[in-house]
Amino acid sequence: MQLLKTLTSIPGPSGNEKPVRDFILNYVNREMGSWKVRPEILAGEVYQDNIILVFGNPRTAVFSHIDTVGFTVRYEDQLVPIGGPEAITGSKLVGRDHIGEISCELLVDEEYHVRYKFGRPIATGTELLYKPDFRDTAEFIQSPYLDNRLGNYVALKLAETLENGIIVFSTWEEHGGGAVPFLIRELYEKYKITQALVCDITWVTEGVRHGEGVAISMRDRNIPRRAFVERIIALAQKNQVAFQIEVEGAGSSDGREIQQSPYPIDWCFVGAPEDHVHSPDEKVHKADIESMIQLYQVLMKEL
Question: Where are the domains of the chain?
């Protein structure tokens, strides 16, 4: 869990993912000598803060967004959300402006305006994120930003054994998307990719529970092609990987932009469920992390 702990401590709100991109690139360059296949690395200015890792002769791409929710300082003590963070009075926020390091507290007033409490004014435009607080118990991991640092962790564990496939570390997902359209064009036109998996984290609900396996989503606000989802379910059953079926009418992911692209690419969201979504206390069962890694290894071999 040390890699996951490190990932959760790296700031990377939507629009400012560079610190996460730099960490992942350094990690890949350091570790790929021990992987089964050394990937081709596509990164740099033309890709903005996104990364594409190409292994062997790929058929399927895995998308794992590297941005998180947070807050932007507006004027005076006002905060504007990045994505959809859970604003809870008393939450600890950290950041840095031109004066120095910041460790402050979030406040929600009587009119539900979100503000900060700090000993001095914070420069307008400063990003404030939940303070790192990684908790590792016998059964659970609890921390800010398991969405989607856990997805990034699973993707990097997958990279260790991946022979044929593409792993994409994407940006902007939490705040409406924007990166996937130009990434998907590259994957389809250059590599003829027609299958995609969304390596992200979903919700614990009345039908998706802790400890019962990774969630395979049949739909959220968007509906993937059923024939592709049923292939994934069949492979999970064949390989005896613990999983749960998710059906929701709200929520979205990189899958939305894949589906709305002009390319015929099937997709499915496959991710561990968590409680306390977009809060400082996101919580995931370790058994669900294990089944998520197992299922991705199976799918990238057999799809």
Answer: 2-68+135-302, 70-130
Residue 110: per-residue pLDDT? 86
pTM over 0.85: yes
Answer whether 88's CB lies under 8 Å from 194's CB: no
CA distance 205 to 185: 34
Domain 70-130 class in CATH: mainly beta
Q: pLDDT tens for residues 195-250?
A: 999 999 999 999 999 999 999 999 999 999 999 999 999 999 999 999 999 999 99
CA-nearest of 277, 281, 64 to 173 is 64
| Host H or E run for residue 25 | helix 18-31
How far apart, in whole angstroms, are the C-alpha atoms of residue 278 and residue 288?
18
DSSP class of 122: P
* CATH code assigned to 2-68+135-302: 3.40.630.10
* Per-residue confidence band for 118, with pLDDT thresholds at 50, 70 and 90: very high
- The four Cα atoms 32, 33, 35, 41 give a dihedral, to 10 degrees, of 30
What string of DSSP letters covers 28-60? HHHHGGGSSSPPEEE-SGGGTT-EEEEESS-SE
- Express each pLDDT in 46-72 by its tens digit: 999 999 999 999 999 999 999 999 999
Listed residue (41, 115, 112, 125) closest to 77, CA to CA? 115
